[in-house]
């Protein structure tokens, strides 16, 4: 393959709607939304006497916000059972991945998360006059992200 063709193939973008979520290697079906893919470095400001042009900023620690998964209710209660165990005092940490796919279904890349456990579950908003899909939400905390492309 020529170098220009290689460059073109590696620089193509894909839609954000082609994704899967794996928890312990099992693909969890039907997630409609994932948020919280973020890493932030907390900074410590240091004001040096006599230096008024700028502030020294030193890295302090890395923060990972919770990941939030939303999906239509299906006949599976795996996510609920995971959270229910947490409510009962059993923290079962799990590793997982958010997998982004190309238009042809091949894996473009993934974000692996580690030592995750649920901290919040939200059931569907029900209403007799609504014609919406019943959606459940699971919020998890984790100890790090690793991107692989």
- What gross morphology would you assign? globular
Number of helices: 2
Q: Could you tell me the strand content as a percent range?
A: over 45%
Number of DSSP strand runs = 10
The ordered H/E elements are HEEEEEEHEEEE
**What does the radius of gyration come to?**
20 Å
Return the average pLDDT rounded to an integer.
Answer: 86
Given as residue ranges, the uncertain stretches (5+ residues, pLDDT < 50) are: none
Q: Termini, distance in Å?
A: 20 Å
User: What structural class is derived from the secondary structure elements?
Assistant: mainly beta
In this structure, how is the largest beta sheet organized?
Answer: 8 strands, antiparallel
Share of helical residues: 10-25%
Tell me briefly what this model is.
The protein contains 2 helices and 10 strands. It is mostly beta strands and 149 residues long. The strands form 2 sheets. Strands 1, 2, 3, 6, 7, 8, 9 and 10 form an 8-stranded antiparallel beta sheet that branches. A two-stranded antiparallel ribbon has the order 4-5.
Question: In words, what does this structure look like?
Answer:
By secondary structure, the protein is mostly beta strands. The protein has helices at 3-10, 78-87; strands at residues 19-23, 26-28, 31-35, 40-46, 56-63, 67-72, 94-101, 107-122, 135-141, 145-148. Strands 1, 2, 3, 6, 7, 8, 9 and 10 form an eight-stranded antiparallel sheet that branches. The mean pLDDT is 86.
